[in-house]
Design goal:
Elements lengths: L1 E4 L9 E4 L1 E3 L2 E3 L6 E6 L4 E7 L3 H16 L1 H4 L2 H17 L1 H12 L3 H21 L15 E9 L2 E5 L5 H15 L2 E5 L6 H13 L6 E3 L4 H9 L5 E5 L2 H12 L4 E5 L5 E4 L5 H12 L12 E5 L3 H13 L19 H17 L2 E4 L18 E4 L6 H4 L6 E7 L2 H9 L6 E5 L3 H10 L4 E4 L18 E2 L5 H5 L2 E9 L12
Parallel strand pairs: 2-6, 8-9, 8-11, 9-10, 11-12, 13-14, 13-18, 14-17, 16-17, 18-19
Antiparallel strand pairs: 1-2, 3-4, 5-6, 7-21, 12-20, 15-16
The structure holds 1,4-dihydronicotinamide adenine dinucleotide (NAI) and magnesium ion.
Magnesium ion binds next to strand 5 and helix 4.
Length: about 500
Amino acid sequence: MTTTANVTGNDRAVVTRQHMLIGGEWVDAVSGETSESINPYSGRAWAQVPVAGAEDVDRAVKQARAALDGVWGQTSALDRGRMIRRLSALIAENAEALAEAETTDNGKLLREMRSQMKSLPDWFDYFAGLADKNEGTTPPDPKPNMFAYTRREPVGVVGAILPWNSPLLLMSMKLAPGLAAGCTFVVKPAEQTPVSTLKFAELVEKAGFPPGVINVITGAGETGRLLAAHPDVDKIAFTGSTETGIKVIKTAADHMARVTMELGGKSPNIVFADADLAAAANGVVAGIFAATGQTCVAGSRLLVQREVHDQLLELVATRARTIKMGDPLDAQTEMGPIAFREQFDKVAGYVDIARREGATVLVGGGRSPDPAHADGLFFQPTILTDVTNDMRIAQEEIFGPVLSVIPFDDEEEAIRIANDTQYGLGAGIWTNNVARSHRVAHRIKAGSVFINTYRMLGFNVPFGGFKRSGLGRENGIEAIRAYTETKSIWVNLSEETRDPFVLG
Ligand code: NAI
Ligand code: MG
């Protein structure tokens, strides 16, 4: 819920005072502590949110538990599906307002956030349909006179911890299957981008979910840690950095909470000499400069076959130099600012590292010199050449508009370099040779491989990481299973007494 203060004329300078949703009530933190969300385009605070502490986290978890043990637990799967569909319709009606909140929080293009918000109902509709199809099994006659069947019961109270880059999309990938499975939620958006999730929570109420089914608490890493550490949280669904993900797994392990993890990447975009180079160049730009490079599947390593290296680079560099940076709310803008100050400094720091490591800055390399960008955190589209795969800039996730270009000679070498990373989230393959495209796709260790396209995501296509890019999968039928516990039930069909000293 929003109350507005400090109106300074321009809508986007309004500071809105936000509250958390716990057990159907809009509340402040018990401590009264708040923090600000900064609009990275204007550089000004635009929202103030509570910082949840231990008591608030505990209250939210208790409310989620009460809903699970109460009215939500009694709601039929069919009715859960109906409620999820109502929420879906409300999201569609409010897509524009949600998109504007995300853009104001993190500076990503309104046109991208709009298209993300328009796709959110797909997730809810798909999983709403699965709610009453989450069937158990009846294993055929496991023993004489024994009947067994399985049930897929909700895993319980889920803590969803979100990053700042695409808050509602990444939340929906957890909420939609989890609600369909019958779970309840405590959602914690990132401290940089809390507002869209709070606006979303207003729709949850309107859709008629019982109080406590979806709670939203705000705060930074400590709030997230408290949530993951809460002994009554059954599962943590996390998206964010690998470093934090590892901490969350360790915290969750102390009370055996289940985890799904969507973490970082250093994804290769591999261009073979036999590719359509214009299409490949466009895909390379989509992979690293869309969303200002702030996406987990960013194609941050361009592996290019040596014979087309110069030609491809010319195409990519020409496009990179003409990318239109500006107000993310403007439909003409192609690249917005970096989401917040620390992230900007991190990206700039990596370009310094690149120079020290001996890479060459072919395009960009620093803050935009355009005076129109002075207030915002604008970093130029940056292309680094003379990169080898062992350099830090080729191994570590930068999470910004910085492309490292690495040449290769043949297919074997391309596969070897592509897989020489701790990550395994995405990979792009550009070639007109059908046999090669699948052959290489099968050998890349990554959760999603894109052939002659890049950065695709769909509600019914599993998504997740190999290696240190994650644990488990979101989206698709598998995703609902990740929110269930399988229970096996044995029924004795005989009325005879059996030997008590042998295993049945
Ligand atoms: P982060 O991974 O630290 O934060 C993600 C979420 O975890 C936030 O809600 C945060 O408050 C929470 N969190 C932080 N510490 C926690 C803890 N100990 N226990 C539980 N929750 C905790 O990401 P951050 O700091 O926003 O960004 C750092 C880097 O992470 C970025 O530079 C980028 O490389 C990467 N990143 C990757 C994302 C992806 O989609 N793969 C998304 C966001 C960030
Ligand atoms: Mg912000």
